[in-house]
Predict the structure.
Amino acid sequence: MDTDNDKNLAQQEEDTQKDRYLTFSIGNESFGVEIKYVTEIIGILPVTVIPEVPDYVKGIINLRGKIIPVIDIRLKFKKEAVDYDDRTCIIVVNVEDITAGFIVDNVTEVITISGDDVVAPPEYKECCQNNYIQNIGKTPNGIKLLLDCRMILSGADQIAGL
Amino acid sequence: MTSNIFNEHMLEVFLFETYELMEQLEEQLLNIESSKQMTKENIDEIFRIMHTTKGSSAMMQLEGISVLTHKIEDLFYYIRENDLTGINNDEITQLGFMTIDFIRTEIKKLEEGKTPDGDASDLEKKITVLIAKLKDPGKDTAKAKDKIAATDLQQAITDDRKGTLYEAKVTFDNDCGMLNIRAYTVVRNITDYCSSIAHIPEELMDNDEASDIIAKNGFIIRFNSEHHQEEIEKVLKESLFVTDIRLAVISDNDAGKSGPSKEGASTEAKNIDSQNGVQQKKGIISVNIEKMDRLMDLVGEIVITEAMVINNPDLKGLQLDNFQKSAAQLKKLNNELQDVVMSIRMIPIAATFHKMHRIVRDMNKKLGKDVELYIYGEETEVDKSIIDSLGDPLIHLVRNCMDHGIEDPETRKKANKPEKGKVILDARNNGSEITIRISDDGKGLDRHRIYEKAKDRGFTVKAEDEMTDKEIFSLILIAGFSTNTEVTEYSGRGVGLDVVKKTIEKLGGNISIESIFGEGTTINMRIPLTLAIINGMKVSVGKSIFTIPITSIKESMKIKKEDIVKDTSDREMVMIRGKAYPVVRLHRHFVLESEITDLTEGILVMVESEDNAFCIFADTIIGEQQIVVKPIPAFIGKCENANTGIAGCAILDDANISIILDVTGLFSQIIK
């Protein structure tokens, strides 16, 4: 498997970001986001609360003079809120000119998952949650749920959620 | 014939200049039209504009434009030489406007990276016909003109006795193509150094044979100059593609008599001279707006950093006289820097307003209406980025006034109104925002008709008498609403007013409509002056810090228990100097935890929005600070209702974020 990946990498030298994912965990589950969306990873910063937004939008942070919104991925996926600690990270992503931070329990590593190892998730009928999982990646260290950053930032359910 | 030999920068300058020139030309034409006569100044100015446009478009190898402008130049040359100030101006101005439109379309194409391929031959023909028409009524005048021109030239050259008459033969690299234009460049270069010029072939721009003649014989120029021969040679050599120059002194001091008497040449030279003079006077540079934005951002960061340094917690309790002195100096300089940067970005709204003259004029002609545009407060200055977005909404609104608002003269007469309709554009500065008002004295909005229509289209479910005028009028701002059943060139498709509304809202402003049926309509737009730096008062609520723009604060106070009044629905008010003001509790409005919930323990800040005053309740006042307004991220904006009372956010000196309150929004949300 690894050799396959290496070959893949060599072939796509011009596009080193392809098939590479930043993985992080929330509780027991492992997620991945495409590395091309990720700008940086920072520790948790003081968050300014904004009124009248869904609870998972924690507010805004000051990232070196730039003001960006932060989303608690835990709350976004309707999991129980936990207190932030020094393992808590903010993954700063930039999707189609929207910059936002994802608050996650901790960041694991950057891995390569080749296209062959990525499968589409099953299509459930009633569960809208699944919209955020674009694909499922198989790795030697287990399954990674690959997030659809665009969906998370599209705000599609936010207005409905109000 | 490709334009890629010109670099981006040249193109940019050309576009900028030409747009500017077209604006000036438009102004001149409108001027002529409104005063019903052409003054010599008008003609000279138009001549100058056309001349510059001709030159630069030839440089950019835009043949269509250069030929057309040349034609216009011919026309005005004729008018000037024959002193035809009393002739049929309408026809001339009409052609002028058509020319402007043509040139604008062409350079627009260029701007968008397309090939400017418009065909101006129709327009050229019209101009030729007009010139012929002007010439026809009296052939004597035409002859007289020749005489005048000839004596003019004589005069010009004899006046220039001081200079030396040179003759230069310039040879170009034959492969460079467009020899006539190269030659024209040479003439332009040399004009700064001499007083009169004549050249063979005499007609450069509009003459296909010119290139051939130059290729065969070289380009021969004669001119008077006080400069040294070497100097002139150097200037000539600087021109592109010049391979060889032979410069000879024909006569010293006594240039006049033997000077070449080519008609038109000397006038042309004079023209270029005056044009250069104007350009030098201005001393304006155009700067890329992105650089300005960057500068603005930097100044913003400096202001924040300054506050961070001066209010540094490490300095607390220290006696630092010298530091304080320097800090005060720094603060002063920074304020000045800020003012300067802001003022660079602020431009008067006049240009945008004056564009409306043209709209009104065109529509008057097309729709057979008689409307006059009045402009007030054109000197009001607004941030450049805002001005840029204001143009289209204004055009749309003015068109609406003209098309739907103002009746035709007969109807007006019957309604006992003056036949001449009025459209008023009014801008004024209200602290941190400007109000732009567009009003007409037309037929006004028909409340009932709007309601019926809105109901038809399912835009409203309320009963008619339950809705206020304002509510009903605001229905016309909804997409897909148009009360005009007939679609005209200008309006009536139901696209537009909603776009206007969106644009204004995007700028952080709002729009409202007032109207009295039969008497007229007024559209009010409130737009923030700039997206920049404001003075704010910081107040704390629990752990959060809010900033209230200083301009909207009237006073702040502690109140006593007996001043608090509650109405039957438990709404709180405070009595201050015998007047009851509603209270907005920030901790309640923004759902924040705060220990101070008793009105007597916290602080009340009385703010004013438009004409309404109310009190904001917060824990304490922290202090005043200059803040840079930053927009709330678009992502958050998406999940908010329109008016939550947040104007933006700002970074404080301790790097925390403060939310800036939108006083008007807060008021409209809480109090009806």
About this structure: Residues 1-6, 138-161, 254-281 of chain B have pLDDT under 50 and may be disordered. The domain at 533-670 of chain B is CATH 2.40.50.180 (OB fold (Dihydrolipoamide Acetyltransferase, E2P)).
